[in-house]
Design goal:
Blueprint (H helix, E strand, L loop, with lengths): L1 E7 L3 H9 L7 E5 L3 H5 L7 E4 L1 H9 L12 E3 L1 E6 L6 E3 L9 E5 H13 L4 E4 L3 E6 L4 E5 L4 E9 L6 H5 L4 E17 L6 E6 L4 E6 L4 E8 L1 H9 L2 H11 L7 E3 L4 E10 L3 E2 L2 E3 L5 E2 L7 H16 L8 H29 L4 H16 L1 H12 L8
Helix pairs in contact: 1-4, 1-8, 3-8, 8-9
This protein binds flavin-adenine dinucleotide (FAD).
Length: 389
């Protein structure tokens, strides 16, 4: 099998790149381990993805946004960070009554919309077989699939998750940061109204976030030590609802579990290099963010946009200059937030006295420093400026 660009992984990042390459003149082949049915109609995975305005624009441009039913997305009007019992909250809200900060969209629907978009393009899909080998030469690459078949490509893009096997096969290391915590995500119905406000509450021994969905429904994101998380996963649904109500101190009234629970290990990763000979990393395989700042897929999308632009410039998609431009632009866009997110996540999950004092000070300073908040809101909205209440 011959192709110009082989994309390993038909997750949201790989699919977004394939969609963005439509019309570029490059032959694209997606190689995916999961069976086709699982990516054409993905199961609910608990993730509600906060999409920035820029990400929505990219999805619109590649033809995927209108495939997501608007009624299934929810506006994120404001975000608040709470620290223990401290009444000072760090607020992030756009000024005026206009645009929300972003929109929450179930990951399942993003993936389905991207799959449908790619199905309208010339891209080929080989599903149900994992990539198990990789040879990267000066003139081209050979990808080996489970079962022995090979694919020859002029460029290989690996978008095969933060635990990327292709990254390892290409000899590229990554900084892996294991937070030693697990994250449970699930939908909960509640009595109170959330008013479109997301909260991230750093309590002692737990972090609990509530993401506002449509109606009296939120997505709870509960970060716990792994053994406690296992216990919470095993609880009967009523007991889980009661536990979340108690952990959230009844701020939204009584809560009941509304669907399945999903468990994720909290591991962040950052590849040492984003490109190599006839090779590039994309999505979580390049930058695996801690979810607290909700930027993983937003970075996956902006990376796909930049890479597609570079690959569309010339004849040879493996040309070094374009790959380096992608790598330096993507690193500049992602590294500061990756480092800041990890520092915040570590500080807030540390229950020792000095850390508690430091975060109280940070929260106090943040609530006073309007310019800092303005900068963060602008970043969320990808707008040049957003006025701050
Ligand atoms: C709880 C949670 C909440 C999140 N919230 C947000 C948010 O609010 N905003 C945000 O922007 N991001 C968020 N994220 C991050 C976001 O979900 C990820 O960044 C995104 O899913 C990464 O997409 P990807 O395509 O790079 O990787 P993945 O989704 O991991 O897909 C990788 C694909 O590669 C395939 N694959 C793996 N190995 C092989 C192989 N050897 N051969 C062939 N195929 C292979 C897999 O089957 C899979 O289909 C969140 C993540 C979590 C866990």
């Amino acid at each position: 099998m011959n192709t110009d660009i082989a994309i390993i992984g038909a997750g949201p990042a790989g699919l977004a790149l394939a969609a963005a390459l439509a019309g570029s003149g490059q032959r694209v082949t997606l190689l995916e381990r999961a069976p086709e049915a699982a990516i054409a109609d993905p199961a609910f995975d608990g993730r509600e993805i906060a999409l920035t305005h820029r990400s929505q624009a990219i999805l619109r441009e590649i033809g995927a946004w209108d495939r997501i039913p608007a009624a299934e997305t929810a506006p994120l009007r404001e975000a608040k960070v709470l620290n223990g019992a401290n009444p000072l909250a760090l607020r992030f809200a756009p000024g005026g009554a206009g645009e929300p900060l972003g929109r929450l969209v179930p990951n399942q629907l993003i993936r389905r919309a991207l799959f449908e978009t790619v199905a309208t393009t010339e891209a080929k899909l080989v599903a149900g077989r994992a990539v198990v080998g990789l040879e990267l030469g000066a003139q081209g690459a050979v990808v080996r699939l489970e079962g022995g078949e090979t694919v020859r490509a002029r460029l290989v893009v690996a978008a095969d998750s933060r635990f990327s096997e292709a990254r390892r096969l290409a000899g590229i290391g990554a900084a892996m940061l294991d937070f030693g915590r697990s994250m449970i995500v699930a939908r909960v119905a509640h009595e109170g109204a959330h008013e479109g406000v997301a909260t991230e509450w750093f309590g002692h021994g737990q972090t609990i976030a509530m993401l506002p969905l449509n109606g009296a429904m939120s997505s709870v994101v509960l970060t716990l030590p792994p053994a406690e998380a296992q216990d919470a996963m095993a609880m009967p649904p009523e007991a889980f609802g009661a536990a979340v109500t108690r952990r959230y101190q009844g701020r939204l009234g009584r809560m009941t579990l509304a669907g399945t629970r999903h468990l994720y290990p909290l591991v962040a990763s950052y590849a040492h290099r984003f490109v190599g000979r006839r090779f590039a990393l994309l999505g979580d395989a390049a930058v695996g963010m801690h979810p607290v700042t909700a930027h993983g897929f937003n970075f996956g999308l902006s990376g796909a946009e930049v890479l597609a632009r570079e690959l569309g410039r010339g004849e040879d998609p493996g040309a070094v200059a374009g790959l380096f431009r992608y790598a330096s632009q993507h690193r500049a866009a992602t590294l500061p937030l990756f480092l800041a997110t990890n520092a915040v996540a570590r500080l807030y999950s540390d229950d020792r006295g000095p850390a508690r004092l430091a975060r109280a000070a940070l929260l106090g300073a943040g609530s006073l420093l309007a310019p800092v908040r303005r900068a963060i809101v602008s970043r969320l909205m990808d707008a040049p400026a957003a006025s701050q209440a």
